[in-house]
Amino acid sequence: MEWETILAFGLLIVTLVSFFMEKVSVDTTALTLLGVILIFSGLEISDNWPSVSNILSVFSNEAPLTIASMFVISASLNRCRLIEQTSDYLGKFCKFGYRKFMLILLVLVAFVSAFVNNTPVVVVLLPVVISLSRTMGVPSSKMLIPVSYASIFGGCCTLVGTSTNILASGIITNSSVYPNMAPIGMFELSKIGLPLLGISLGFLVLFGKKLLPDREALSGIISELDRKEFLTEAIVQINSPLLGQKIKDSGIRRLSGVRLLEIVRDGISISARNSEEILEANDRLVLSCRPQGIIETSEFEGIDLLNQTDLGIEQISSKTGVMVECVVGPSSSLISKSLLDASFRSRFNLTILAVHRRGKNLGFNIDKVRLQASDTILILGTKEAIERLRKSEEVILLDQAAMPMKNMKKKAPIVLGVLVGIIGIASSGVLPISITAIIGVSILLLTGCLKAREAYRAIEWNILVLIYGMLALGLTMEATGASSILASVVGGIGLGLFEPEWQPLAVLVVLYLCTALLTEVLSNNATIVIMAPIALELANIMEMSVNNARAYVLTACIAASASFVTPIGYQTNTFVYTVGGYKFGDFVKVGIYFNAIYFVGTIILVSSIWGFMPF
After folding, report:
1. How many CB atoms lie within 10 A of CB 24?
2. For the whole model, what pTM was predicted?
């Protein structure tokens, strides 16, 4: 191998290791990768390394722009609360029992996910499903994994169902291996995805309840008795014997039925988790007390319960504290910020009790933890403060479904019309999906369905940065011959062990397994950027026609999205992971069946449709 090829492989390995270790965010890794590639391009030290203009051409790829447009369209649907409004209708079906209700719910989720980015579909349905699970008397853990899986089933059926398919379409139209290959059609994947959807939904409805665990959500871990607390505030007196004492030595924590949540000093919130913090005069102590605890606090020497009429200080004395669980959404402005940097406590006057990520409690120093999408936060505050948080749309509160905004109900027909128009025009082939999506976004902005600021916020920029970085790596691997070498290794397994008539099928199996394995540890977008060019190289090695080469790419699309056995392989799984109180092994126990269904089903369907069967 030439040094350029070795360098390309080195960049690939370092990138994959960084993604897996998660020491830095995936978009930071991708941006760094793009920078390194551009450095070598700018030095012009080899003809086998792509030029700067070639690398920058990834920004002309229509796929990321289409994906960004679909994010905006999905946000418009969410803003109209169209999905949440279905909860009123879904509630009527609870009386039919678990299986019939789940069939209706999952069909709805799969259908919507086929035409809207499936991650926001799952996110907005979280509080709806949790509320309906209480109505049915069924643990939410029996319903959340099925909702995530159903969104994946639906996303595999159309071009716009998942960004993976849009990205693959952009890759094949810019490939030098098959330069005349057309983009993926709107319903081209349906001939594979729809049969798999039907089989998988049937299996999930029939056997899901038995396979799925009984788990409690984060807020459910706390008993009803513990929830019945009051939030109150006390002030440290000027001549208090507590002055200069550390929290752990003050005796406040030894009060029965009292929890010191935080200290407010000169308008700045200080976490009470630091037991070494020294008390000062006029410190405001935010306490969570049971009724008996309020009495003991009022009798505790050196502090006084705040009296609003005397001090004129905004406070929450004697108001009932409500404990609520919420999730950081995929486009929240809190992402990559710590609670301290975001001024979360002072903005909303809420106390953070716990932050969970992927089933793990992040510990006591949570104020400095940088939040990620799907992080679950347990908060405590007054009803008024929680309603302020709900209206801010910074997080998704799981206590109840969001209500549709009255002024947006009239916009719902416009949003639906735009979505139907995009699908219809793109399906007919009159205009490419990228152009129709951009026109659709323009209509939404002009009609006031979404403000420009909201549109920018709806775009998951970290995913776009990841895509651009991986596209640059893919182009580099293709130019240096690294993709051809990987394709030779992957194809060699099938080509070397089987007779010629079995080779197309054998290579198809190896391609699916490699893609499925990679997507369980990486994001589906990163996986397809790596595997789609390899799929084309494999077809080229076997001297396949353009039509048969498409079969390999479509197989890679299905395999990249069919991630069921881990909660980190697909973003919808990650969102339900903590919310449903699941363990990592729960996904393995349930997901293995669907990995098998999609593997066997895809191989049989693709081989039958494209004639890869030797008999």
Report:
1. 12
2. 0.81
Q: What is the DSSP string of 307-352?
A: -HHHH-----TTEEPEEEEEEE-TT-TTTT-BTTTTTHHHHHT-EE
CB atoms closer than 10 angstroms to residue 517? 13
More confidently predicted of 577 and 289: 577
**Other C-beta atoms lying within 10 Å of the C-beta of residue 368:** 11
pLDDT of residue 408: 63
Question: What is the helix (H) or strand (E) element at residue 355, kind and residue range?
Answer: strand 351-357
Query: What are the residue boundaries of the structural domains of the chain, listed by start?
Result: 230-319, 321-397
> Distance (Å, rounded) from C-alpha 369 to C-alpha 336?
9
CA atoms of 532 and 560, how far apart (whole Å): 10
- Distance (Å) of CA 301 to CA 236, 285, 305, 308: 10, 14, 11, 20
Distance CA 192, CA 207 (A): 23
Q: Do domains 230-319 and 321-397 have the same CATH topology?
A: yes
| 467 close to 525: Cβ distance less than 8 angstroms | yes
Q: How far apart are CA 109 and CA 150, in angstroms?
A: 6
Is residue 228 predicted with pLDDT exceeding 60?
no
Angle at 358 between CA 354 and CA 361, to 5 degrees: 30
Contact 517, 566 (CB under 8 A): no
Question: pLDDT tens digits, residue range 547-563?
Answer: 999 999 999 999 999 98
Q: In angstroms, what is the C-alpha Rg of the chain?
A: 27
| Residue from 552, 566, 571 nearest 518 by CA | 566
Please tell me what DSSP assigns to residue 1: -
- Cα 346 to the chain's mean position, in Å? 27
Q: Judge whether 246 and 276 are in contact, CB under 8 Å.
A: yes
Mean pLDDT over the full length of the chain: 85
DSSP string, 129-190: HHHHHHHHT--GGGTHHHHHHHHHHHHTTSGGGSHHHHHHHHHHHT-SSSTTPPPPPTTTTH
Q: Are 376 and 327 in contact (CB under 8 A)?
A: yes
pLDDT at 26 over 90: no
Task: Give me 184's structure tokens.
Answer: 């993926």
Q: Helices in 429-460 by DSSP H: which ranges?
A: 433-446, 452-458
**The domain defined by 321-397 carries CATH number 3.30.70.1450:** yes
CA distance 159 to 424: 12
**Taking 80 as the threshold, does the pLDDT of residue 440 lie above it?**
yes
What is the SS3 assignment for 105? helix
- Homologous superfamily (CATH) of 230-319 is Regulator of K+ conductance, C-terminal domain (3.30.70.1450)
Residues 309-327: pLDDT tens digits? 333 333 444 455 677 888 9
Tell me what pLDDT residue 273 has: 74
Pairing between β-strand 322-328 and β-strand 395-397 as defined by DSSP bridges: antiparallel
